[in-house]
Amino acid sequence: MKLRKGNAAFERAMDDVAEQGDPSLLKRDFPRLIQVELAHVHPRPDQPRRHFDAQALRELADSINRQGLLQPIIVRAKAGARGDYDLVAGERRWRAVQLLGWDRVNAIVSTGDAAEIALVENLQRVDLSPAEEARGLQALMDSHGYTQEAAAAAVGWSRTQVNRALKLLTLPDAVLEECATLHLSRNAMIELALAEDPAERAMLMELVRRGGSVKALREARQPKQARRPAETRDGDRVGKVFLDVVRVERSLTLLEDQAAPLTTIQRAQLDSLYRRLGALLARS
Questions:
Q1: Are 225 and 176 within one domain?
Q2: Out of 11, 59, 91, 249, which one is annotated catalytic?
Q3: Is 91 an annotated catalytic residue?
Q4: Using CA atoms in the order 260, 261, 262, 264, what is the torsion angle rounded to 10 degrees?
Q5: What is the pTM of this model?
Q6: What is the domain count for the chain?
Q7: Residue 269: burial class (beta carbons within 10 Å; 0-12, 13-18, 19+)
Q8: Which of 56, 86, 215, 282 pairs with 250 at a CA distance of 20 to 30 A?
Q9: Closest by alpha carbon to 255, among 219, 184, 187, 203?
């Protein structure tokens, strides 16, 4: 099994270190590499990754079968269960080798904080969707009582990055699910989250479904300052209404560029808007 080749290489490396005669190179907390039976490794329920694509797992299994397991999984001794381990990081690899029929796998035994290690490892490997990143950060903050600053330090992000990621959790679950299906970037999802008005968010989602870029989303959400009525700066309520009219005009331009025919709901919404505008114009 290719697993044995990796283990032999590790043992040779340890022999080389021992020959140097410097005991400081082998500390008590030096990570241990072991071979562990898959049946004794248990995934953690708070693992940041929620979705495992079957096709991607099959491809990973094929790669491991050809190249061997190049990176061990990370485990931690399970409290109260001698010989059993909690899976800290590497669940995709753990699932993939099961597909290959392996009964054992190389694992690094860690004594660090399991939640932090799992989240950081996934973030560094860009293995999580934006929503999974946000949920992982929130879980880390909840379980440790971390502030945004402390969470940022733990995962190597800036506080602004953490703040913007957490903003995604304000999106409805249905929107988050569709974003995952569309494989939207974090920046695109942030633009959706910044649109607090449901009608505006619905308009942005239509733009997303047509392949709109982050720049297009940002422009649709934020009309240029130069086009704002002067009354708005004085807090005039009517001026604010006409600022929304400017936003609607920009949205209509996007609809005009749409190649696909209008849906029944879109047609009904535009018809309602047409009738209300007609009534307003008739009063003047």
A1: yes
A2: 91
A3: yes
A4: -120
A5: 0.47
A6: 3
A7: middle
A8: 282
A9: 203
